[in-house]
């Protein structure tokens, strides 16, 4: 089986969706869940499932992203992942970190890329008056939220939507899309999925 490491910063609902999908018939197994925030509740949720976890707090490193990433890389290398899934991981990664894992790293981003790279995607879709919004899973390249899209799922934007309500509607789709993309990616299939 392919070894999968998952990087999170928060509750880890996408991490759980990926892990729950990794049953006996799955081409992957989870070998590590790591977070830049030691308080991320997803770490405890992963540990409760018997998965190895690592907390690499970015704060002691201040602005030194490379030192933070060196510490993270040490934990990742020890787990020997074939694939890394960013799942609500909220740190920008340097080009050298990305280059090390290029072709093996996926990210989930809550917009219909190439629209709304970066933050506050739900508020921006509402602000723009979009009729549709959604989520993308893409390969991670040096361009922020810019790598090849491997899957997208769409949701309607309702006239009375708040960013919170819209985010919840998108999150339901995230939990369906990311496991589908990971399965295919692990089998070497990069054909984009549209939901
Ligand atoms: C998800 O909505 C994910 O798409 C988003 O953070 C949330 C994490 O939720 N990711 C980004 O915004 C990446 N820039 P989770 O911790 O429950 O999976």
UniProtKB/TrEMBL annotation:
Residues at the catalytic site: 109 (proton donor)
Amino acids binding (6R)-10-formyltetrahydrofolate: 65, 90-93, 107
Swiss-Prot/TrEMBL keywords: Purine biosynthesis, Transferase
UniProt key word Transferase: yes
Gene3D superfamilies: Formyl transferase, N-terminal domain
GO annotation, biological process: 'de novo' IMP biosynthetic process
Any one Gene Ontology cellular component term annotated for this protein: cytosol
Protein's pathway: Purine metabolism; IMP biosynthesis via de novo pathway; N(2)-formyl-N(1)-(5-phospho-D-ribosyl)glycinamide from N(1)-(5-phospho-D-ribosyl)glycinamide (10-formyl THF route): step 1/1
Site (Raises pKa of active site His): 145
PROSITE patterns: GART
Secretion signal span: none
GO MF entries: phosphoribosylglycinamide formyltransferase activity
InterPro entries named in the record: Formyl_transf_N, Formyl_transf_N_sf, GART, GART_AS
Segments forming domain Formyl transferase N-terminal: 2-182
Annotated residues for binding of N(1)-(5-phospho-beta-D-ribosyl)glycinamide: 12-14
Catalytic activity: N(1)-(5-phospho-beta-D-ribosyl)glycinamide + (6R)-10-formyltetrahydrofolate = N(2)-formyl-N(1)-(5-phospho-beta-D-ribosyl)glycinamide + (6S)-5,6,7,8-tetrahydrofolate + H(+)
EC number: 2.1.2.2
Function recorded in the entry: Catalyzes the transfer of a formyl group from 10-formyltetrahydrofolate to 5-phospho-ribosyl-glycinamide (GAR), producing 5-phospho-ribosyl-N-formylglycinamide (FGAR) and tetrahydrofolate.
NCBIfam families in alphabetical order: PurN
Similarity section: Belongs to the GART family.
Protein name listed in UniProt: Phosphoribosylglycinamide formyltransferase
